Amino acid sequence: MKATQLLHNLGQSIWLDNITRDLLDSGTLERYIDELSVTGLTSNPTIFDHAIKNSSTYDAAIREKVRNGASGEALFFELALEDLTRAAALFRPIHDKTNGVDGWVSLEVSPLLVHDTPSTLAAALHLHGHGEQSNLFIKIPGTAEGLPAIEEAIFAGVPVNVTLLFSREQYVAAAEAYLRGVERRIEIGLNPNVGSVASVFISRWDTAVMGKTPEGLRDRLGIAVAMQTYKAYRSLLASPRWQRVFNAGARPQRLLWASTGTKDPQASDVLYVKALAAPFTVNTMPEATLKALADHGSLDAILPVDGGDCEEVLAQFAKAGIDVDALATRLQDEGAKSFVQSWNELMAVIISKSAALSTAAAR
Description:
Blueprint: H1 3-10, E1 12-16, H2 21-25, H3 28-36, E2 38-41, H4 45-53, H5 59-67, H6 72-97, E3 105-108, H7 117-131, E4 136-141, H8 146-155, E5 160-165, H9 168-187, E6 196-201, H10 203-209, H11 221-237, H12 240-247, E7 254-258, H13 271-275, E8 281-285, H14 287-296, H15 310-319, H16 324-362
Parallel strand pairs: 1-2, 1-8, 3-4, 4-5, 5-6, 6-7, 7-8
């Protein structure tokens, strides 16, 4: 049995951290669902930037949309929703079978809004309404400005994938924003069953401290932070406050491991997948990591609910001069800036392709 199936049987959902029109047109995504236990999909500006920039697959659609008057950001969201609508249809049987627990796809609000609460909320409401898919998450960053938008979006019934979380503290803040939104729905008699995941990024921790700590700590920081976060996650789910909302009909906001592709060439290409195997969670994997897991991956122990040795490992990093709290803040800020850069590059690609295709069509 493939490790992908074993992971699925354990109770962890495998989502693909990629989407391109080629994946859809070739039937590859459907094959991943059928053969590699993939039950969902995530996207971000970087993924779409690479997909549109490095392929001519979108050219005909761009040409048609330009003729119809679309441009820039609006044109992009039309392209993205076309892809995600097709992907959502492939995952809908899973979504229906699991009663909405699994089978989700994700679309991110513009990263330019990362520090603008009202505009983030307005964008989330607009994309949710325009997407018209029961299994479409709207991704909102878990920044200080994003947290109120997350609460309001959940209160409005918009399923949310909280992105750009890097630490236990950032996760807990996002979980509480979700919980407040659910509790407010219960207070006024609305259905509290609004889907959500909280995405904690892993590999960027180890990239950030590479070469700055003793060799024995190499590639251990991201996993230690994940273990610490998982302990907090399981504690929250077991708390009286959360169990009250579950009793009222809400469901858990699942913890999602993001950025689980190995960046260190000296480490296993399934390092984070093996280390973060745990029930009640999601692992969204780059395509290469998914294939590696299916080809030669294996599973060992599952993630300990009590956090294992994470505190001891984190203490070793502190002794080596790593301020984990400060680094978490920096990583979230850098992640937001990286998505803004990818967004700007994506918009530049959309504009240049639109112009070139329009000129060619006019000849």
